[in-house]
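Aim 2 progress update. The chain analyzed this quarter is reproduced below.
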Amino acid sequence: MSECCASDILTGYTPKTAQNFQLDSGVWFKDYIVGTDTPATAQAKIIGATQGGSSIAVTPTMRQALVDGLQGEWAGGKRILFWDAVGSPNFVEVSKGVADVALAAVNTVTSAFYEEITSRHHICDEDFIENVTFIGTISGSDDPIIIQLFKVLNMNGFNFTSADATEAVVATELKAHYDPLDPGVPPFKIYMPKSQGTVTGIVSNAGGAVADATVTVTISGKDYVTTTNELGAYILCLPYGTGYTAGAAKAAEVGTSALFDVVGGQETSAVDITIS
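Predicted structure tokens:
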């Protein structure tokens, strides 16, 4: 008789899992400056809309040292020689901007009605795109995931596919390259946002715990709002940060918590509020 039952099912799911989904297809930018640009302010830097999503592969090439008497591959004997970083978006916009990215070495002549685009056999330093940047939404954060590839050339050429009852697609293979002036730095960066944390506490007044009180935390102009349960307890998911306060209100009674900090992936407890 099998001893297996539903309770034996194992899963990697934790309460943090739903905060770590990368949602939807994301957006590709050209020459995006992290810390200065935002997706909202850098609309002019979007390369183009995509179809079918994208893939990004960052892969090391390794060398294994060989030593007599040690069989097979052994720990401590490996060295990374270099990194390959390639993004493969399929652009559904057929535009000059997409063509400029697709053709590694571009010559353009403007006529009355067209931009006449050709290429050449030699690649100049300025043909390398300073960076192409993927930005996507992470479910548990107000900050996006950002993946940057540096000194980029498209290795796929102008790979244009059209068909009936669908849109044409320009497939690309955006390959990052090392900077010869800084050869020890791999040509990519991944900015992973810190996950949200939670804050919990009790709202009370002179009569004890207060049910159905409204609790609000305002961060960078955005309100995070919840209500207390029948025990006066509340819980809020908030972006990581320091120096927050929570306000509570019910009817004519209001109050504010002491200052508190939020650490990504952790709970800040006992942020209690007294209203009067």
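The chain has two domains: 14-191, 197-274. Residues 14-191 form a domain with the Pnp Oxidase; Chain A fold (CATH 2.30.110). These observations will guide the mutagenesis experiments scheduled for the next reporting period.
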